[in-house]
Amino acid sequence: MVLMSTVSWTVDKHFCMGRVMDIAVFGHADDCGMEDAMAAMQTTGLENHCCDDESFTLQGQDDLKLSLSDLGLDDQLFLVAFTYSYIDLFAPISQLPVPNEKYPPPLLVKDIQILDEVFLI
Fold this sequence. Notes:
Shape: flat
Number of helices: 4
Pfam families: DUF8199
InterPro entries: DUF8199 (IPR058512), HYC_CC_PP (IPR058060)
Oligomer: single chain
């Protein structure tokens, strides 16, 4: 969460005829190739009005001076409970619990497989 709030994000978009052709995060969006087509037609006097570039930057936070006393009692309680339960996920289990260890298996009076003549081949 600290990493996401301190990094500055730049998103660059290239529009051609009102449609988004390319989106780039942290870089420059590729163009649609309309400039190359206009250069191939040798129309240097005409301007390309169908393409448009748009970019915006979301500035990250520069000062991080948070302390535990700035948090309220509910936030501190949540933070402690979350940390305890997260650490408890990785605690090793010495022995897996057996759910039916106190119940004995049923007594077999007759061999049902031989009575029904069902055999595994």
